[in-house]
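Record now logged for everyone:
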Amino acid sequence: MPAARAPAAPVHRHSVRAQVLELLRTALVSGELAPGEVYSAPVLGERLGVSATPVREAMQRLAVEGAVEVVPNRGFRVVRRTARELAELAEVRALIEVPVMLRLARTVPAARWDALRPLAEATAGAAARGDRAHYAETDRAFHRAVLALDGNEQLVAVAEDLHRRSQWPLVSGPAPRQADLLADAAEHTALLDALAAQDFTVVQALVREHFTGAQT
């Protein structure tokens, strides 16, 4: 088993489990935890400066999210997801988000969309820096804020779970290029423009293209 790498940020005791979970999520998105490799909770805990218990709890949460799988008596294996699985996730996300965004385009005033522009700008900033982990976080924040305008908390939770699953770099191959991140981020601003203008055709096309592009 290769030596496990983990972010070097210190862990504060007042919220150990939550911090460990976020550190491991960042390591997954950045590729520091590699698809197909098995990592033990004690080894990761030692590198993070915590006991194995919060690491094991965080890994169990990641198993629920579909990012890792339990390997009895060894630890947790980072899942290898196929291109087909990512395509299926994109299809399900589109089935959920496209009709919601079309409904919001009919009912939400343009000023409300303008209030979300800082979130779109945050994704663009992360893309410009080539920061994949922060881009993943800001991308989820943008979509969460848009869908929250519908007022359906269950929908937001389901959509975010699907979104997070689609972000794990689980397909063998090159990591997303910075140009891909920049193009993806630009679609956020274009989507806000289309929503504010109530351009339903463009809204639908942008959302579907956005999900398809996120697979590459």
